[in-house]
Amino acid sequence: MTYHILYESTPWHTRCALFDDHARLLTLRYDECTRRHIEGALVYGRVRQVVPSLGAAFVSVGDLNDALLPFNTLPEGTKLTEGQGIVARITRGGFYEKGPRLDARTAIKPPSADTPCPSIISPPPSALTRALHDAGSNPVTVWILNGAHRDAVTRHVPERQVKQLDLDGSHEGLPSLTDLLDDHLDAMVSPRPTFPFKGKGIEGNLIIELTSAVATIDVNASPTTHMQKADATMAVNLRAAEEVARLCRLLDLGGSVIVDFITPKSKNHRGIVAEHLGATFNVTDDRFVELRPMSRHGLLELTRERSGPSLSLLLKTPEYIAGRVGLTLWRTPAGANPALRQQTITAHPDVIYVLQKHLSQSICLAALGRSVALVPNASLPYTHVQITG
Q1: In 3D, which of 322, 315, 278 has the Cα closest to residue 17?
Q2: Do residues 139 and 3 touch, judged by C-beta distance below 8 A?
Q3: Is domain 42-122 classified as CATH 2.40.50.140?
Q4: CB-based contacts of 215: which residues, under 8 Å, 6+ apart?
Q5: Sheet containing 299-304: which strands, arranged edge to edge?
Q6: Which of 32, 55, 93, 367 is the most buried (most CB within 10 A)?
Q7: What are the residue boundaries of the structural domains of the chain, listed by start?
């Protein structure tokens, strides 16, 4: 079983997509220059407020919101006072109005007095490092579209594990990883994210809806071959359970997640589906997951620890939309298409504002071999970007 990582990068934005041996997208990791306070970063922060009733302290780490440091993550005997500096590792990135979560159990001592506080002492692991961690013990092939990225990749994996894709994202019978990734990205940023799945004799989809407090996943499917209704329902729910676990990890769905399975035919069937879902989580997800008994109508609630904001929400921000635009441009490197002299990007002004900071004409001509015109259009939603040329 060999996993595949699609590595794409611009000077300001890097993306690593992990696929399993069935070409299913498992995780999607990013390095984004504007978002550094994420899981794994080591920070030097200043205690702003100690709240005994909460069992935690609020720490300024340089992010938009103060970070939460639970007392039970402090080294034994440590007491906090307002204004003191403390070294901690981010265990969960901030989302919505919540700041990051910290863990102060680290062997790193506070830096010298001339070190700015707050500051980042050590950045988080790179997107490629995190994707390799996601792959676990499975052998990995890292695919690049641009030969200029080979040196950056071989710092992390042996040369023999790095291969270059054709411009269409395929190689020697391998499905187009770029097309597969684009389909997932389009689904993630759609108003009602929908993800199809298939199994032996069945096919269907999962529809996800997100709020600030809860996520819901609706299972829709039908048999494609003749089978008994009870058998078809069981087959659909078992296959859907595997996709639920995959999407919870991929999208980093956390807090309360309610799954609406197709109504099982018996209590025994409900138990089998729930057990299969739990076993799949245990094998594929390193986040804490707790399942509650399925109702007689097929509703199952699970709680899952998250590492940051849901990917579906993150990908709708101007920074990540602009990053996707940049990665799309970099898929055609300089000289790959001599007829391509200029491209025009039409997008919402907030997206154009981000692109203007990174796509100067000198950079475009040097890295892409063509000029890029940026056209703002306030009538377009964030996620609707037009690239012509």
Answers
A1: 315
A2: yes
A3: yes
A4: 208, 209, 253, 255, 256, 257, 258, 310
A5: 194-199, 202-210, 214-223, 255-260, 299-304, 289-291
A6: 93
A7: 1-32+125-174, 42-122, 190-310, 315-388
pLDDT tens, position by position, 40-70: 999 999 999 999 999 999 999 999 899 999 9
For the chain, list residues with pLDDT below 50.
Answer: none
Q: How far is 347 from 352, CA to CA, in rounded Å? A: 6
Distance between CA atoms of residues 63 and 39, nearest Å: 13
**Helices 349-356 & 318-330 angle (0-180, nearest 10):** 60
Domains 1-32+125-174 and 42-122 alike in fold: no
Q: What is the CA radius of gyration of the chain?
A: 23
SS3 annotation, the chain: CCEEEEEEECCCEEEEEEECCCCCEEEEEEEECCECCCCCCEEEEEEEEEECCCCEEEEECCCCCCEEEEHHHCCCCCCCCCCCEEEEEEEECCECCECCEEECCCCCCCCCCCCCCCEEEECCCCHHHHHHHHCCCCCEEEEECCHHHHHHHHCCCCHHHEEECCCCCCECCECCHHHHHHHHHHHHCCCCCEEEEEECCEEEEEEEEECCCEEEEEEEEEECCCCCHHHHHHHHHHHHHHHHHHHHHHHCCCEEEEEECCCCCCHHHHHHHHHHHHHHHHHHCCCCEEECCCCCCCEEEEEECCCCCCHHHHCCCHHHHHHHHHHHHHCCCCCCCCCCCEEEEEECHHHHHHHHCCCCHHHHHHHHCCEEEEEECCCCCCCCCEEEC
Q: Which CATH class is domain 1-32+125-174?
A: alpha beta
- Model pTM? 0.90
